[in-house]
TrEMBL record, chains A, B, C, D:
Keyword Lipid metabolism: no
SUPFAM superfamilies linked: Homeodomain-like, Tetracyclin repressor-like, C-terminal domain
Record's keyword terms, sorted: DNA-binding, Transcription, Transcription regulation
Domain HTH tetR-type residues, every copy: 12-72
Record protein name field: TetR family transcriptional regulator
Source organism phylogeny: Bacteria, Bacillati, Actinomycetota, Actinomycetes, Streptosporangiales
Organism from which the protein derives: Nonomuraea polychroma
Entry superkingdom: Bacteria
DNA-binding region in chain numbering: 35-54
DNA sequence: CACTAACCGAGACGGTACGTCCCGTCTTCGT
DNA sequence: ACGAAGACGGGACGTACCGTCTCGGTTAGTG
């Protein structure tokens, strides 16, 4: 029977200030050195106001990143579909490479990933709120390619996404190699070779 | 000009006690709640003895895992080579799946990965000391398959390893799906399809 | 521009617990072995609560002794005045001798003195808060004696107090000789001889 | 049956270096912040060499001050005796005032006093080695004055020294007033008044 | 239109851990 | 064998944050 705060009373001004402060501080000092006290101070907010609405530091950071992505999530979120799956995937993969190289994205995403690894709850939220919609858009494009006979009709699309993106993600996460547009292209080529439909005689 | 301790005077007894304590505590309380003080107390050691030889909590944990792997690293570290690359890879991949499922391995590896993500220095050490030897063994097996004409002779083997392992690693790291022997097999199948040498007429 | 804590929010309960713990611990282990950590633990208080309100160990001990004296300071604080300055001073000096011999007083006062010697700031506080009122009372009695023609009318009373008390204080502080009632009497006799008014014809 | 070090093997060079380092450091950082490690480092000596020959920090500092006084202690150590006790004492007292005002003397003496207060063993050593000879010289001068009928023949000379010096010492120790040549003179005047022999008719 | 309940900023509180300093002991090596 | 060097187990330091807990002071919505 614990006391739940009343969301209708919540100060939107404070919420925005907290998320903005969290975003800034993650970029400035990194996730590990980020503290609730610093967020509260930067946001001009009492600590209690943070503890009232978020259960953990990770949750705040997660929301702060989520808040960035939401506006674009409302809009279409569809991948290009020119009919040429290879060209379309290369465009998308090269864009992903560019995103990972952008320092403004890198710090928060790395922070978020760190937290997700050790918090299954956040991981679930991540898949639902952030990865989910994006993955759906990607799978929609692959389904279109299946219909066009460009990739195997019976392919497991979740697995397909892993095959395509996991090498890129791992190389970035562990810094185990350079992320270049050529690398993106090569991954697409290998992916298509693996997913190619069986030959008809 | 800074003062470095003299490694020849180092107490091997203390070193072992610290690494053992770190290993135990990571399993017991998890990496995030692991503290230097707890390691020192468990090891019966002064905190300064830890700070003297390791720059960070991450470095201690890294060494504690490294110490586990070293004995086996001395021995052969060769993968099975029956001539059947598909069968051999499936054995290895299934073993990897099993390893990731073992809670005794999972906790420290997850801890290590967390640390590696945010510490490029540790990441480099990881690649050199832990991943390196293993990857070399795997690439040796793939080279053997190249000689046997089972995979493309001009394939980039680092990339090949990423294609084969990254999906598995990512699924485990982000808990984005079940790790089963069948999954391991499927990855091998897709991998071989992608790496297959071009047909000669 | 530095951040001061707000005294109105101060916890009186904690303040009392800290002063009591400090008093007890000085008696138990002595001033040199007294630690802030032990005071905090005994008082059931966070260390920060001590550091927030006191600048040093010495200041805490000082306050803990001050707190003891304050209640009596409110009351009269007047010395006996029977008209016989010799008898009155001997009573007071013998009382001082007895006080110095009481182990319950000795430890904290010795601690306090140690700290005062090396901290001019504390020394000033000591004179204002502790020694000051007592000295005033003593000087009041001497002034009465001046009016009665028992000691020189033009005598410097601060100097007079030094002449009377310093030998006693020094013998106690340096343990350079026994503190007996007879010693007290002798000091009064010498003091009166030195302060006697000049003879009239 | 603990192992005693053999004094014949003792390195005089190290002993001197340690005492010099202690003297310097007391002046530089004060007694409270003085550490054995700093003394050892400054002296270019192992810590064990200090622990082998001295039981405590206080003992080292005591010896370091003692070493300064010893050369002069060997020589005469007699006070001036012009036959005029008042003039002679004023010279000596004014010299003491000047000594206390000298910062080079002040720091170590204050440190020494601090230690003596809390260590009865050191106090005894102090009286024997340092204060003793000086006091003897002073008492010799007073005895001469007794013979000359300038002070009471039956006066307790230890008490006399306290009466004369304690006010000065206390004022310096507690910083309770200015130390001036006039103050020294006044003390001598009062002292002589108190010690004056009884009138003969 | 007062009343009152909630959120809010602020920040003191009991704690835990930090990374550092120094203690006094012990060990190694060089002279 | 002593001395320099310094690693060791240990204890305390003073600081940074944790998450909880009052404090007034707004700020709604209700009676």
């Amino acid at each position: 029977m614990s006391k739940q705060p009343d969301p209708t009373r919540r100060s939107e001004r404070s919420r925005q200030a907290i998320l903005a402060a969290a975003r800034e501080l993650v970029s400035e000092v990194g996730y590990a050195k980020l503290t609730i006290e610093a967020i509260a101070a930067r946001a001009g907010v009492g600590k209690q106001t943070i503890y009232r609405w978020w259960p953990s530091k990770g949750a705040v950071v997660f929301d702060s990143i989520l808040a960035l992505s939401e506006p674009s999530a409302d809009s279409g979120m569809a991948l290009p579909d020119t009919g040429d799956i290879e060209a379309d995937l290369k465009v998308v993969m090269r864009a992903t490479v560019a995103e990972f190289a952008d320092p403004a994205f890198e710090a928060p995403i790395r922070a978020l990933t760190t937290e997700i690894i050790n918090d299954p709850g956040l991981a679930a939220q991540y898949r639902e709120k952030l990865a989910g919609p994006v993955d759906e858009a990607k799978k929609a494009r692959l389904r279109s390619a299946q219909r066009a006979g460009q990739i195997a009709a019976d392919a497991d699309l979740d697995l397909a996404l892993e095959l395509l993106y996991a090498p890129l993600f791992q190389r970035w996460l562990l810094r185990s190699g350079p992320l270049t547009p050529e690398y993106a292209d090569t991954l697409v080529d290998l992916f298509l070779k693996a997913m190619r439909p069986p030959l008809r005689h």
